[in-house]
Amino acid sequence: MPRRTAFSAQTLSVLAALADRPSDWRHGYDLARETGLKSGTLYPILVRLADRELVEACWEEGEPAGRPRRHLYRLTSDGLPAATAALAAAPAPATRAARPGRAAAPRRLAREGP
User: Fold this and answer.
1) What is the rounded CA–CA span in Å between residue 12 and residue 75?
2) Is pLDDT of 2 > 50?
3) How far apart are CA 105 and CA 12, in angstroms?
4) What is the torsional sign of CA 8, 5, 23, 64?
């Protein structure tokens, strides 16, 4: 089965966050805050990107006080150009504007009448 080359909008947001500071190691909580993704979405994306060798992962060094060590992530040397190309090729985000020639229907908040 051929490997998919297009990335989901969620994956593109992770790639954009990592490409913003490509040499920095980032932990998942930091990426989740920046992208707005929940852990159940974010971590599978990071695993898939690591499987494709676009992202590398390592454990945080030392023993932080009061919490477990974190996994850290950053783009690989192949990951940065791949992320840059994917972000450049991505379609512009969709807007919620009405289609041309059609007015948006007003929303009703409460049911009128009995």
Assistant:
1) 13
2) no
3) 32
4) positive
